Amino acid sequence: xxxxxRINKDLFRQRGKLVSIILGFHILAIVLMMLYKKVFKxxxxxxxxxxxxxxxxxxxxxxxxSVIYVFDSSKYRLIxxxxxxxxxxxxxxxxxxxxxxxxxxxxIYFGANxxxxxxxxxxxxxxxNVNQYWFQIKLVIAxxxxxxxxxxxxxxxxxxxxxxxxxxxxxxxxxxxxxxTLIVIWAVMxxxxxxxxxxxxxxxxxxxxxxFSSIVRMLNMSLFILVAWNVVLTFLNLYxxxxxxxxxx
Amino acid sequence: MSKVLEIKDLRYKKNHxxxxxxxxxxxxxxxxxxxxxxxxxxKTTLMRLIVGxxxxxxxxxTVAGVESKEAIKSCVSTTYSxxxxxxxxxxxxxxxxxxxxxxxxxxxxxxPDFSLDKYQEMADFLxxxxxxxLKNLSTGETEKLTIALTLARxxxxxLLDEPLNGIDIxxxxxxxxxxxxxxxxxxxxxxxxxxxxxxxxxLDDVIIIKDQTIYEVDSVEEIQNKYHLGVEAYYExxxxxxxxxx
Lengths: 249, 246
Known about the structure:
The complex is a heterodimer.
Chain A: H1 3-39, H2 49-72, H3 74-77, H4 83-115, H5 119-128, H6 133-167, H7 174-202, H8 212-243
Helix pairs in contact in A: 1-2, 1-4, 2-4, 2-6, 4-6, 6-7, 6-8
Chain B: E1 3-14, E2 17-28, E3 32-36, H1 43-51, E4 58-63, H2 69-75, E5 76-78, H3 82-85, H4 100-110, H5 116-125, H6 139-151, E6 157-161, H7 169-182, E7 188-192, H8 196-200, E8 205-210, E9 213-219, H9 220-227, H10 231-238
Keywords (chain A): Membrane, Transmembrane, Transmembrane helix
Transmembrane segments (chain A): 18-36, 48-71, 91-116, 136-161, 173-195, 215-241
Domain ABC transporter (chain B): 5-236
């Protein structure tokens, strides 16, 4: 087994465990809620969408922390593997964890709806079940790319904060790091917003109307921009990781 | 005798402060080398630079003839803070359940040179219980585990950073005994420690770091012949008779 496969195996197992715990908690929460309603004879319908949203947000936050931990930890930085190999293993395992989380949440959502039907979620499912399969697929891809951008962007912020912190003539302290992180986030968001806005204008966003074809066009532009930013930030991460980054734990 | 480690003009700067400068070092195979220096002299930083955990500002590091970070990591086994490095997203919660056997499994998975038999021998000798949870281990137990994991890899260079810190005399003796017992004949081991007296008997060579650079590299025998002093006395003399830590 090559070194890259060895680390993949470990990271996939770890991320799988993380998502399984989130899904497990979500199922437990639904079961407890339904038991509560049954015991106390609560008849008001309860939507399951909020729970799905909370589980997905929790999953994304924990995955971001987990991805950043890998680059900070001596445990991973000492493995005989290139920085590029470590980066792609880390991001790839996070990508599959996101897919697992989304598929798992979809199964829980539809399953819970079948067992405990409620009018709110049935309406949601009906509305989403239009015959535009290609559009729906693109929507899901855009959602996944958006989550990936959050992950890759968080790594950029972390690596930049670490690099700038090392260059400054002050030792790292929690307060200074928080301030520095906020400054870096702001400094990264400014060019990000300007470039994204100008690219959208160049792609013709101003001609977009409320018609379905216009919405599809807008979605295509978003997909293009998401892919482009993911690629650009990946290159930036690889540069920072190879040249400057140090293990801190 | 072939060289296991060669460092040329190494420089490392952080927070506008030079930590190490003009570091030149060459070590032979099969030695146990003491890395001595006051607190903040740069011992840990030098070890972290060798293994690639810190990024050097300039200079060249070669281990067993290889220069790339990836290749160096295959030739070096080092100690590090297990409790800090094995923290995951569930740290400090009841879901944090990293047991010794999970860490051993991790080493088996990621290091092809990890010998489970050798680890098991050392774990038995050091009385490590694989079912124990990492967060419940004492300082001494964590240190014993770190040593067993580090020495169970079959590599050419071992870096032991302060392996005796904060632990009682009996455990220190056990760790020293395990170092002697399980070190490969061909491999070189660099040990940094403030317990100079206790490790002195182990050492073939000594490296002293002072004023951000290597002050001296000598064999223990030569120090005795040249200065008529033991390692500890000489080290104290270098640091002006008492400014050193021990």
